[in-house]
Design a protein that fits this description.
Helix content is about 50%, strand content about 0%. It is mainly α. It has a domain at about 25-85. It is flat, with a radius of gyration of 21 Å. The two termini are about 40 Å apart. About 0% of the residues are buried.
Length: about 90
């Protein structure tokens, strides 16, 4: 391969997830295994279930949330963006 003397720069960004070790009871492991969908990792299951739990708290009659209008709009936008991302097949949830 001949070169013309020009430099080519390539930028590569690599995201590395930090791995944490947690202990689960046999019951917790069995429940997570049952909740696991095809192609999901245990991390994916934990994130999905944690988000569902947070939604249940939000819809509880005892839940009270105080935030500014700007914070509320930003929160709403992030929820809509996440919902749209989850609707697209093959999209990884953060």
């Amino acid at each position: 391969m001949a070169t013309s003397g020009k430099a080519i720069w390539v930028c590569v960004r690599i995201h590395r997830a930090v791995t944490k070790t947690i202990s689960l009871s046999d019951e917790a492991y069995a429940l997570l295994s049952q909740a696991k969908r095809p192609g999901e990792s245990f991390s994916d299951v934990a994130v999905r279930l944690a988000r569902l739990a947070a939604q249940e708290e939000v819809f509880s009659p005892d839940f009270k949330l105080e935030m500014s209008d700007e914070e509320a709009e930003a929160w709403k936008a992030s929820i809509y963006a996440e919902r749209d991302r989850e609707r697209k097949p093959g999209t990884k949830i953060r």
